[in-house]
């Protein structure tokens, strides 16, 4: 783009005109910020204000815009100018709402406002509107891996929305485990009786839909590309491999039932009359509405005992440590198989905590009403008695050991995710309880042609990582959505809901890719990373640290960006030791120049400066909300939003230290297993990198207290300002930075 | 305002020379002021009270109440039945509700009633006197009749159990009903705020059979009133009144306390506020005399 | 795990639950308990229950017939109804406890020496005799329910209370000899007799 022509617009609305000398702010924009002009307006977000800006842009008067008004999170519809670079100078939330409305505070408030104007002008000077993305491609076809209830639902939902889908199922039939059930738990009021599974109808819908293609006995042997241009090799039943292109992928690879042979204490494998829940479904299907018979001798079952949490929610070796969620409701449903037909059959459910999610509480009550007996207790052993099984358990309410005779015992075992190869296994320390994934996990589901490995990363217990806390579908491989029990244990109703969401996310991803736009959380962002080839040392740090596997290497080992895989977090930019990576609208300079633009008072003025680099996802909104609640913080703080702490390059910190800042704070999201970082690894990487900054501090003979890294949640409305206040106290205590001029 | 009429079920303890005779006297005095006419159910019988279950069982117990209900229905089917005693109200209302809901029980109860030539159809409502005051008269009207505000008297409103549970007063919570405090306030006295034994149990009938256990409960009820700075305790229940008043001496001996707090019925303090004399509201029926109230009542 | 401690087979079956459902007031609610224990925590005499209500519900399901019916637990109920209003499953717990006590009494296996049981018997006898409670007779019956010697002791202990009641005209000494009660006491006797007949006819027989 040609000559830089900055137009600054200073709003006087929302009290800005009264609290700040806007004339002085405008003067700073032109004099120091080199704006071609600065205009004041009574209400900038009003139609007339917006119109004024638009006219200036259209007339070619300006090609960079500074909006000195409210936070970038406010009035986004009004202030939407997509042909020019825009910097939002946050005078409202960032200044007047965080500072006391008092005469004695006026000077510092004005200084704060002036600094933010300088910073915005400096930022916008370094920005250009994003260029069009040359890699953008549209492919409306969705690949669904797995033909169980989740996969079928995802495919049907995609098709209903007008997007064709292909199902690849490794087994010889559609429907997965759900197709093997006799009945499923109720989904409609009064949630009292088992209902038809509906799987046959769903399969029929899939088979009749010309938009849907099904491969049975097929696997995906290679997946390459990126959203909008995935290519998948499908090894088909006939032995031939076909390659098809897809816009997005839904991984619905489901679960494997826990191997009950690992529970010899409960007699599984020793007596055919001990079954797992799927085993009971099989018996019920065989009975076909008639009396359920025990496998050993065909006798009609008169008494049945359900052992909940069999081999799960246990720290014992070889057990699953987690709760599989559906099993309590399933056992209640299965007890009804007996009670509904013959109320005289004794059904006993042995539980430690009955967990009945969804409308399961109604089902539980219905079970009680039907006479199912629920006993809080722990099963010890299932032995073979003279006429059936002998179950020993401890009744935890009556605090006694009990032995009962049963015709049939059902073990409520858990779900093990079919999540493919654990690509991070070698990096992790061994699971604390020696939990081991079954051998089938050695087989990859997607065979991704990504340098990070063939499958989606796992989070805990072998389930697929999928931004569990905030954005459940998002995985670390853009455009690939994990759904159903591969993501977390769930029942049919949850899987259907989950798969519907995943289908919509897949559609969203492929549409975004078609327009060169980012997926969550910077959805709609058109910028993408580029690099200056000259300076690159081919160190590969960017390729390794990218949480999304977006960066490959070309033949000369330079980074090769898969733009559609990129989530625009800037972690690569933060990682680059030679600072050659940049976005058009976000770079080392857009932030670095802001840091430098702040007017640094001399030591004698006793006005310290605190730099706050705040993650735009949680910390910055938290500070905005604090301002809305008029929770203030030090007037010495200067806050710069960053895309993710992962994008923070340590040069910013060292530059700030050298420039005379007295304190520096990094605010990002929670890291670790319960991470809330919107880019999964960014916050964690920043914390690691900052530990290295402390070496720099030592070299500069600066106090370590001057640099702090915090995990801040979006709800930390009181805490985030308090942290800044605490830093102001620290700066007061350790004294001014020796690097002031 | 037109005279309000109700079928009245006083209950055994309200009989002349019985343990809650002062409740009956004061209730009549209060109703006199409020222009409420109470038509006693002819030849009413005991409701079985809360302890009647043990020997009585279900149907005989319900049938006992059904007799009262049937007689009341025969006399004045258009009038609600009102009870002053918590246990009487509970048993009678429960009988009414159970019979109305359960066709089999209703048929059996009528079969038993037929032995005495009676028949019951559940036409009337069964209400506690407090409900009549709050719902039919209203707080505003109750306040209008106050002639001698009970200023300077602090009162712990002890609601107890059976006026409060399981039925309770419409719109009030089980854990912290406010109506008694409101009545106290309207009469010009100061309610003890946060009286934390407000809905605690006094032991009920177990006051007789398990005196040690019950008196431990009563001690807490009295102690909390003292802690709140109360001059007296006020209750809507004869069982509560009896248990909390008469055992204070025995509690003092056992726990080395010096309790001597009067325990009154709401109808007594209302009567005094309405200008009735001590005798008219049965203040001479207090074993622990309510001196402050008596002084006020005797003032011209 | 000792064998003595092990409850033998036939427990954890539905048979006693069915007996309770058929014979105990509101017994069909027993199976709906979800073992939260709010009832036990809400009972004013909670600490004195050998088996708190939620445990009793579990015992019924576990088939501990004699242990429950011979227990003094239900006789600790003061009829305060706290458990009822707090039960998240809305079980009429008070009624079930009353019902269990009555069933035990009917079967003749309720604890003989339990004071509340004794008092309840005196009370019922008193009220059904004349149709209304004769308080002085009830009181004396109560004092002497544990025999003559203890009766004298209790009477002496309670004398100040009695004197207080008499002085305040809340006690009628003549009621010992002249208490009329209801006019229709014969009707009342007939009604109760019929009601009892109907109830017993309904009771399912489960032996015992």
Describe the protein.
The complex is a heterotrimer of chains A (about 750), B (about 300) and C (about 210). Chain A has about 750 residues and is of the alpha/beta class. Chain A has 4 domains: about 1-130, Rossmann fold (3-Layer(aba) Sandwich); about 140-255 and about 415-515, FAD/NAD(P)-binding domain, CATH 3.50.50; about 260-415, FAD/NAD(P)-binding domain; about 600-740, 3-Layer(aba) Sandwich (Rossmann fold), CATH 3.40.50. By secondary structure, chain B is α/β, with parallel strands linked by helices. Chain B has 2 domains: about 5-130, Glutathione S-transferase Yfyf (Class Pi), Chain A, domain 2 (Up-down Bundle), CATH 1.20.1050.140; about 145-300, Rossmann fold. Chain B has 14 helices and 8 strands. Chain B has helices at about 20-35, 55, 60-75, 85-100, 105-115, 130-135, 140-145, 180-185, 205-210, 210-225, 240-245, 250-255, 265-275, 290-300; strands at about 5-10, 35-40, 80-85, 125-130, 155, 190, 230-235, 265. A 4-stranded parallel beta sheet of chain B has the order 2-1-3-4. Mean pLDDT of chain C is about 90; it is low at about 1-10. The longest helix of chain C has 20 residues, at about 150-165. Chain C is built from 10 helices and no strands. Chain C has helices at about 15-25, 40, 55-60, 65-70, 80-85, 95-105, 115-130, 135-145, 150-165, 185-200. Chain C has 2 domains: about 5-110, Orthogonal Bundle (Fumarate Reductase Iron-sulfur Protein, Chain B, domain 2), CATH 1.10.1060; about 115-200, no CATH class. By secondary structure, chain C is mainly alpha-helical. Chain C is about 55% helix and about 0% strand. Chains in contact: A-C, B-C. Chains B and C meet through helix 2, helix 3, helix 5, helix 9 and helix 10 of B and helix 5, helix 6, helix 7, helix 9 and helix 10 of C.
């Amino acid at each position: 783009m040609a000559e830089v022509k900055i137009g600054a617009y200073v709003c006087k609305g929302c009290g800005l005109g009264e609290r700040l000398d806007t004339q002085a702010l405008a003067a700073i924009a032109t004099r120091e910020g080199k704006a071609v002009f600065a205009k004041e307006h009574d209400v900038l977000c009003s139609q007339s204000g917006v119109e004024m800006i638009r006219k200036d842009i259209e007339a070619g008067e300006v090609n960079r815009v500074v909006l000195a008004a409210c936070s970038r999170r406010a009035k986004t519809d009004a202030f939407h100018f997509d042909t020019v670079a825009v910097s939002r100078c946050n005078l409202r939330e960032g200044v007047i709402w965080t500072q006391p409305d008092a005469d004695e505070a006026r000077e510092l408030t004005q200084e704060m406002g002036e600094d933010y104007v300088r910073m915005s002008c400096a930022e916008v000077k370094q920005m250009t509107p994003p260029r069009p993305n040359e890699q953008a491609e549209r492919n409306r076809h969705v690949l669904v891996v797995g033909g169980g209830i989740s996969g079928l639902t995802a495919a049907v939902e995609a098709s209903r929305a007008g997007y064709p889908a292909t199902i690849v199922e490794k087994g010889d039939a559609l429907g997965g485990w759900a197709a093997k059930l006799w009945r499923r738990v109720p989904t409609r009021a009064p949630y009292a009786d088992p209902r038809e599974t509906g799987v046959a109808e769903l399969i029929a819908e899939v088979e009749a839909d010309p938009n849907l293609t099904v491969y049975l006995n097929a696997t995906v042997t290679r997946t390459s590309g990126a959203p909008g241009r995935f290519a998948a090799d499908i090894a088909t039943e006939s032995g031939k491999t076909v390659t098809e292109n897809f816009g997005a992928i839904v991984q619905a690879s489901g679960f494997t039932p826990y191997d009950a042979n690992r529970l010899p204490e409960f007699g599984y494998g020793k007596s055919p009359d001990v079954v797992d829940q799927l085993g009971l479904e099989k018996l019920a299907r065989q009975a076909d509405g008639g009396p359920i018979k025990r496998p050993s001798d065909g006798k009609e079952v008169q008494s049945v005992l359900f052992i909940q949490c069999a081999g799960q929610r246990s720290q014992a070796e070889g057990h699953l440590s987690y709760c599989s969620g559906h099993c309590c409701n399933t056992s209640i449903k299965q007890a009804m198989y007996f009670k509904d037909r013959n109320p005289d059959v004794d059904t006993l459910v042995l539980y430690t905590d009955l967990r009945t999610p969804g409308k399961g509480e109604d089902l539980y009550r219905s079970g009680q009403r039907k006479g199912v007996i629920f006993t809080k207790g722990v099963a010890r052993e299932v032995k073979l008695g003279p006429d059936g099984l002998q179950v020993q358990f401890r009744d935890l309410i009556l605090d006694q050991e009990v032995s009962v005779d049963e015709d049939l015992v059902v073990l409520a075992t858990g779900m093990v995710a079919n999540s493919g190869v654990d690509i991070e296994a070698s990096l992790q320390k061994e699971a604390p309880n020696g939990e081991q994934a079954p051998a089938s996990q050695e087989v990859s589901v997607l065979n991704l042609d990504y340098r990070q490995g063939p499958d989606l990363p796992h989070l805990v217990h072998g389930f697929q990582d999928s931004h569990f806390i905030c954005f459940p579908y998002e995985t670390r491989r853009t455009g690939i959505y994990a759904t159903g029990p591969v993501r977390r244990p769930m029942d049919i109703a949850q899987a259907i809901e989950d798969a519907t969401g995943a289908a919509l996310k897949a559609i969203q991803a492929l549409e975004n890719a078609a327009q060169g736009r980012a997926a969550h959380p910077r959805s709609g962002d058109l910028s993408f990373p580029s690099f200056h080839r000259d300076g690159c040392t081919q160190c590969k740090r960017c390729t390794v640290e990218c949480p999304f596997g977006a960066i490959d290497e070309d033949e000369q080992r330079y980074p090769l960006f898969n733009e559609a895989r990129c989530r625009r977090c800037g972690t690569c930019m933060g990682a680059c030791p030679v600072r050659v990576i940049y976005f058009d609208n976000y770079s080392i300079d857009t932030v670095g120049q802001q840091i430098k633009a702040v007017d640094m008072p001399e030591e004698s003025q006793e006005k310290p400066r605190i730099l706050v680099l705040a993650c735009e996802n949680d910390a910055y909104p938290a500070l905005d909300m604090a301002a809305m609640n008029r929770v203030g913080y030090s007037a010495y703080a200067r806050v710069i939003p960053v895309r993710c702490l992962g994008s923070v390059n340590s040069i910013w910190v060292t530059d700030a230290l050298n420039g005379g800042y007295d304190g520096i704070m990094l605010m990002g999201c929670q890291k670790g297993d319960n991470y809330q970082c919107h880019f999964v690894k960014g916050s964690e990487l920043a914390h690691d990198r900052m530990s290295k900054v402390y070496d720099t501090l030592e070299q500069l003979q600066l106090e370590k207290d001057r640099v702090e890294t915090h995990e801040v949640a979006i709800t930390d409305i009181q805490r985030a300002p308090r942290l800044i206040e605490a830093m102001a106290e620290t700066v007061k205590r350790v004294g001014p930075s020796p690097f002031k001029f | 305002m037109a005279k309000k009429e109700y079928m009245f079920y006083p209950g055994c303890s309200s009989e002349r020379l019985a343990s809650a005779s002062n409740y009956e006297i004061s209730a009549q005095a209060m109703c006199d002021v409020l222009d409420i006419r109470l038509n006693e159910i002819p030849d009413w019988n005991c409701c079985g009270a809360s302890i009647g279950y043990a020997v009585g069982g279900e149907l005989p117990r319900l049938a006992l109440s059904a007799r009262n209900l049937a007689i009341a229905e025969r006399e004045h089917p258009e009038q609600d039945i009102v009870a002053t005693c918590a246990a009487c109200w509970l048993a009678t209302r429960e009988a009414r509700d159970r019979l109305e809901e359960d066709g089999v029980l209703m048929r059996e109860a009528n079969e038993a009633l037929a032995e005495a030539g009676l028949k019951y159809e559940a036409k009337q409502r069964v209400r506690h006197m407090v409900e009549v005051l709050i719902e039919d008269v209203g707080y505003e009207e109750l306040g209008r009749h106050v002639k001698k505000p009970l200023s300077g008297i602090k009162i712990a409103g002890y609601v107890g159990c059976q006026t409060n549970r399981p039925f309770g007063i419409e719109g009030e919570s089980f854990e912290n009903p406010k109506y008694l405090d409101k009545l106290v306030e309207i009469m010009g006295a100061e309610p003890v705020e946060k009286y934390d034994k407000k809905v605690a149990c006094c032991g009920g009938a177990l006051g007789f059979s398990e005196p040690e256990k019950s008196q431990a409960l009563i001690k807490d009820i009295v102690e909390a009133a003292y802690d709140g700075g109360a001059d007296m305790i006020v209750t809507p229940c004869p069982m509560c009144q009896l248990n909390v008043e008469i055992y204070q001496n025995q509690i003092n001996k056992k726990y080395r306390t010096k309790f001597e707090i009067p325990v009154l019925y709401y109808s007594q303090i209302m009567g005094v506020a309405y200008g009735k004399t001590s005798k008219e509201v049965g203040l001479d029926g207090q074993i622990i005399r309510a001196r402050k109230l008596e002084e006020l009542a005797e003032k011209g | 795990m000792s064998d003595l401690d092990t409850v033998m087979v036939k427990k954890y079956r539905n048979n006693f639950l069915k007996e309770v459902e058929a014979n105990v007031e509101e017994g069909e609610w027993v199976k709906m308990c979800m073992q939260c224990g709010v009832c036990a925590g809400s009972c004013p005499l909670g600490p004195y229950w050998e088996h708190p209500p939620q445990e009793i519900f579990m015992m019924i399901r576990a088939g501990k017939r004699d242990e429950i019916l011979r227990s003094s637990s239900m006789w600790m109920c003061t009829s305060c109804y706290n458990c009822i209003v707090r039960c998240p499953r809305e079980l009429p717990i008070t009624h079930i406890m009353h019902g269990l006590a009555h069933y035990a009494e009917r079967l003749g296996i309720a604890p003989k020496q339990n004071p509340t049981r004794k008092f309840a018997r005196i009370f019922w006898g008193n009220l059904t005799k004349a149709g209304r409670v004769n308080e002085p007779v009830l009181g004396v019956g109560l004092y002497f329910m544990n025999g003559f010697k203890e009766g004298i002791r209790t009477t002496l202990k309670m004398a100040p209370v009695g004197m207080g009641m008499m002085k305040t005209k809340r006690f009628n000494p003549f009621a010992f000899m002249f208490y009329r009660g209801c006019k229709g006491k014969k009707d009342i006797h007939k009604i109760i007799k019929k009601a009892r007949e109907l109830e017993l006819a309904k009771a399912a027989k489960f032996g015992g």
